[in-house]
Every structure is written in C-alpha cells, then in structure tokens.
Specification:
4-stranded parallel beta sheet; alpha/beta; Rossmann fold; about 10% strand; 3-stranded parallel beta sheet; 7 strands; Glutathione S-transferase Yfyf (Class Pi), Chain A, domain 2
Length: about 290
Amino acid sequence: MELAYYPGCSLHASSELYDIQNKLVFRELGMELRDIDDWNCCGASSAGKTNDFLAVALPARNLGIVDASGLSDLVIPCSACYSRMLVSQKRLIDDPELKSRINAELAKKVEGRIKILSILEALVPKAHSGEIAEKTKIKLSGLKPACYYGCLLTRFPSDVAVPDDVENPQGMEVVCRALGAEPIEWSYKTDCCGASAVVNDADTSLTLMSKIMKDALARGANCFVATCPMCQMNLDAYQDKAGETFGIKEKLPVYFITELLGVAIGVSPKQMQVDRHFIDAMGLLKELKLI
C-alpha cells in the first residue's frame, strides 16, 4: 500500500531520525511512504501568527501536489504540519473564493480529494485489525509509557473532524497495548509543552514541561511516548533543565511511537538511531530485556 508522505521541516533537520524510523517501520507494516515531490514548509506556527493568507496558501501548495500525484491518503507525522494542512483544506472547502484565488497561482491545483492522516490515524487501524500484534516479535512487557499527544493533535483553530477524543485521546494507547506495553492513565497528555516558545520564553516552557514530567512520574510512568517532533524534542532536550529548575531528580526517556513499534517488530534500535536521544533511551530497553 502506497501513501503520500509529508515529512515537514523538522524531520529533515532536528528530528531526522523520526523520518528514518517512519519509513522503516511503515514498510515493515506493509505501507510504503512516498515523499511528495518538491514539498514546501507548511508555515507551522509562524505563518498562522503573522499572515492568515500564507497560513492557508503554503499548505495548499502541498495539497495540490498530492492531488496531482494520484494517491488518495497523505500521512503527516508532525502535529503542527498535520494541523496546518487539515485547517487549510477545511478553509478551502468552506471558502470557494479563497480556493480560486490560491489555485490561480498554483501549477498543481487543490482539488480537495486527499484524506489527511496523522501518524496515529494510519497506525490505529493496523492495531484494531490485529496486524500490529501479528507483526510483534518482542512484547514490550514492563514498559509503562505516558502517551503524550501535546496540544495540536486534537485541538484546531477551525471546525475540523477530530478522529479521537479531544480531551482524552486513546489512539496512542491502542497502539502501545497492541505491542504489549502498559500505558498509564494521566492528566497532562494534551497539555502544551511550550513548543518553540522554549527559545524566546524559556521560563514558561520549562514550567509547562515540569508539570508534565511531575504528573507522569507520579502516575508510575517509566517513559514518555510521542508522535510530535517538537513535543519529543522539548521533553528530551530540555528535561535536564526543567528537572534542575523544579527539583525533579528522575529522568524519563522520550520515545517516538515508531521506536516502540520498531523494537517490537524487530527493527534494530541502532538502525532507528534510538541512541541519538538526549535522555538515554537505550538503557530502559536494555533493563527490561527488550533489546
């Protein structure tokens, strides 16, 4: 099965390992991810804050390219990119005049045929069907992840169809349970980690991250699992600083969902570059005899 794939800027930079993992793991699950040709930045948070037209037009160009590709489904791993693309598509459906204005400047027009999928929307059906369990070679026994969705995966600035519960999403838990892990119940799964504000407002971001960390630890988690590259980067790269600032001594590895999938279905952690995390992500897997 071939799916259009939009990696976005983060997966070609700070989270390059996530891009590698997606392609490896999806292939093992019978899904081939095909990068869309000549994709551009979707604008992420910056366009939405500075220019409403560009916030729609930048994602629209990518949607037009996918429409012309002949593929019907577009997988977007980054929560910010997923949100921007989904909101742009909805705005164009609701505003034919805006759609005509944007299409007039595009070589490949937006037709509106594409189904936009988060990484979880692509994986959860595989869990429900039993395909993930069938592929699992190593049960992730003893792994107790705090499934961290962040604030962009289920909350949008437009009225779009949300595929999971807005306040208490369960898609990641479904996938984790299919792998034999035991995800915890906790209260901060959709709270904001500060995202890019860690650059210009570190105090606020560290405060937000400390609350997330404290609740996960209090509920008995031994790791985080995320799908958003910004969320993963924040909790991984700034966990030491947040712990030092707010007196949190314990550290939790922050896995991408693809890393847990890969370990369970037999993909080499080295091949997935799990050893590149800021907070040691190999140690817990070794301690639990999962690798």
